[in-house]
Design a protein that fits this description.
The complex is a heterodimer of chains A (111) and B (114). Chain A has 111 residues and is an all-beta fold. Chain A has strands at 4-7, 10-14, 19-25, 32-38, 45-51, 56-59, 62-67, 72-77, 86-93, 99-101, 105-110. In chain A, strands 2, 4, 5, 9, 10 and 11 form a six-stranded mixed beta sheet that branches. The radius of gyration of chain A is 13 Å and the shape is globular. The termini of chain A are far apart. Chain B has 114 residues and is an all-beta fold. In chain B, 0% of the residues lie in helices and 50% in strands. Chain B contains no helices and eleven strands. The chains are: A mainly beta (111), B mainly beta (114). At the A-B interface, strand 5, strand 9 and strand 10 of A face strand 4 and strand 5 of B.
Amino acid sequence: GENVEQHPSTLSVQEGDSAVIKCTYSDSASNYFPWYKQELGKRPQLIIDIRSNVGEKKDQRIAVTLNKTAKHFSLHITETQPEDSAVYFCAALNSGYALNFGKGTSLLVTP
Amino acid sequence: EAQVTQNPRYLITVTGKKLTVTCSQNMNHEYMSWYRQDPGLGLRQIYYSMNVEVTDKGDVPEGYKVSRKEKRNFPLILESPSPNQTSLYFCASSPRLAGANEQFFGPGTRLTVL
């Protein structure tokens, strides 16, 4: 199926700094790219998503950019806070309606 | 309250003993899906269903079965569980026909196969 690569696997930043997580996908027909946050011991929850007809989307401190030509998309978190510490997953919806996830990035924000 | 529920939440079983993990949603969602989560491997899709009586394989369907006889329920069946199916399982649902909408995850089922 669709191959979604996510980097880095772990990321440590100081409170107030920015964090960037990058993903690439292989299926050029993919048209939907969500990002999920999973806190320790909890279920994944959607934090932002972007569709292929949009290059960038922002929601307060988080933003996602999409480059369809290069087949990569990124999550940007500005002014990070300790409560942003979690595992973040990118995903891409392939042409067969299956959602393929990256392997996750464990983000640690230190005070 | 709109939610996705899974049962059981925790299960320890032995190799070869058939089991079913139930999943139910009360949001009238068309799309439902099962994932397994393993350390270092992220979330991998097992099966998904776009509507009643319509199911399709995800990336790791081997050893699993599903059925979608009613819109609200999407049980995951392990006919003959093996230790490599020890994992954390999530059911999820999404409003529309395609998966291009927010997926709402259940609380997870932690399965151990001895």
